[in-house]
Amino acid sequence: MKNWMKKSIIVTVALLTFGLISPDHFIWEQLLDNKNPTKTISSDAHTIDFEPVSIAKAPDVKETIAIAAREQSYIKFGERIGPFIQNEFDEIIFPRIQEVMDMTIAKVDSKKVANLTISEQPSGEYHEKIFHIIDNDAKKDLIRFHVRTDKKPLEGYYFNFHYHLEEDNYTKHYALGEIFWSKNTPPKWLS
Fold this sequence. Notes:
Elements: H1 3-16, H2 26-31, E1 39-42, E2 47-50, H3 61-107, E3 116-118, E4 129-135, E5 140-152, E6 156-165, E7 174-180
């Protein structure tokens, strides 16, 4: 679609809805799809740049899964949560995620490691899924990484990062850590 036409649609909808639909809404992202593969999440104080990664083309599967895992995490956090929890996530939570992924991949037969993929669509709203590492041959998840919003009385809201293993049929929560949000209700994921 031509650039002037995209901008005209945005202006028309903004005028018709009296500004109730903001330009950073998912629809506008699709309309204004940039050819540049670099994605950016930003707020007034922070900016996060990352590039989409294809696991199939990577020479080192562990490294590529780690890059894709970080990307999926920041997609899940969105522009409203990501910039505010970025430092704690990168310093505390993600190294733990990396360690668990490495241990899980180490258990997989070396011939089957190339058939591992990472799920590409984190869940939004208030659902927990960040990403899953999938064995394409068996068509099942090896490990599921999730984040849950917990409200602790008199303290506020925390993001509880955890994972589930296929070994116990995904029933047990294995804690990775928590990040404090505030006493105010956090926004929905992907926002």
